[in-house]
Model the fold of this input.
Amino acid sequence: MRQVEALGYSKGDVRHLLLTHLDRDHAGGISDFPNAKVHVHRREYDMAVARTAPAPKGRYITDQWKHGPDWAFYGEGGEDWFGFKGVRALGDREPDILMIPLPGHTSGHCGIAVRSGDKWLLHAGDAYFFHAQMQTPPRMPLVLGMFQRRADMDRAMRIQNQERLRTLKAKHGDQVTIFNSHDPVDYERCRCGQHGDVSLTSSP
Ligand SMILES: [Zn+2]
Done:
């Protein structure tokens, strides 16, 4: 909420929250915006909220959505987006915002693609944790790699989706800037609208 305000908006301006997944460090702020619609993949909702699919013990904190948000659900399908499939969010007539399933870290984990001028930003959430995982060959600090494995719900899917993201960056890095939730290097690259330059200079 503070970051929204720092951009010159009030919290009431926020009408939609698009979440990559519902892990505690990604859903903790949603009660700051009780009137906003919360967009998630159906599988994420089923496991974290409806509990119709068993969730790993302690993974989700149900108090984070006890205010009863207005949910919007996404599934598979949608349209082709650089070799991925994405569903248009917010009932957009133009495909400017897409929810793109990237399962592995959680079953309903999604990336969120947003058009920025004639380019794209892809918020990859926790589909990867460290910027050099997007290089070929990928690099990952040992301890962070252990953390990543411990957080996997489906390791094979996570590895496969990381490979797809690496390919996306290699092929279309000039059009799509990919960043994740936690890496300060990715964050610094994307701040202040510098993503256009970044995608051209970040290749090894
Ligand atoms: Zn997570």
About this structure: DSSP finds seven helices and nine strands in the chain. Residues 195-204 have pLDDT under 50 and may be disordered. The domain at 2-201 is CATH 3.60.15.10 (Metallo-beta-lactamase; Chain A). Residues 21, 23, 26, 105, 126 surround zinc ion (CB under 6 Å).
